[in-house]
Amino acid sequence: MGGRFPIAIHILTLLSKAGDDLLSSDYIAGSININPALVRKEISNLRNRGLIISKEGKSGGYRLGKLPGQVTLADVYLAVKTQPVLGAAKNTPNPACPVGKQINKNIDKLYANLDKTLLEKLTTISIEDFSNQFD
């Protein structure tokens, strides 16, 4: 997942604070202090998930696709998650080893429990809740 989760939260928080005003990817990138191309890539992902709406053209930009209270941090996490939160091993354990033959099954179970706990917490926090921490 890398930095995608905090970038997505930053984008959605900016849009939440903007209300019905449209924000440009350049403005959002300036706030995050990253390349606008990276912002547009994440915006595209969030738009595909229905979390952002875009308007094309000279007066275009982006706004939230739902009310801020309807978007949870769990929605954001699921939108950007590409691998287990603690990473994944790239090797194939030795199936003749008593640990190696069972390790992936047990790590998968651990990751499923961690994801469940994390999602339960993130479901209780909306973008509106998170945005209310800012002036």
Write the layout of secondary structure elements.
Blueprint: H1 4-18, H2 25-32, H3 36-48, E1 52-55, E2 61-64, H4 73-80, H5 100-122, H6 127-131
Antiparallel strand pairs: 1-2
Helix pairs in contact: 1-3, 1-4, 2-3, 4-5
CATH topology: Arc Repressor Mutant, subunit A
What is the CATH domain class? Mainly Alpha
- The helix-strand sequence is HHHEEHHH
Radius of gyration, whole Å: 18 Å
How widely separated are the two ends? 28 Å
**Helix share of residues?**
40-55%
Strand content bin: 5-15%
Q: What sort of overall outline do the alpha carbons produce when their principal axes are compared? A: elongated
Low-confidence stretches: none
Total of domains? 1
Structural class: mainly alpha
Report the strand count: 2
Major beta-sheet overview: 2 strands, antiparallel
Architecture (CATH level 2) name: Orthogonal Bundle
Number of discrete helical segments:
6
Major β-sheet strand ordering: 1-2
Q: In CATH, what is the homologous superfamily? A: Winged helix-like DNA-binding domain superfamily/Winged helix DNA-binding domain
Average pLDDT, rounded to a whole number, is 92
Multimeric state of these chains?
Answer: single chain
Task: Please provide a written account of the structure.
By secondary structure, this protein is mainly alpha-helical. The protein is 53% helix and 6% strand. It has 6 helices and 2 strands; from the N terminus they run H-H-H-E-E-H-H-H. It has helices at residues 4-18, 25-32, 36-48, 73-80, 100-122, 127-131; strands at residues 52-55, 61-64. It has a two-stranded antiparallel ribbon with strand order 1-2. Strand 1 (52-55) and strand 2 (61-64) form a beta hairpin. The longest helix has 23 residues, at 100-122. The chain starts with a helix and ends with a helix. The mean pLDDT is 92.
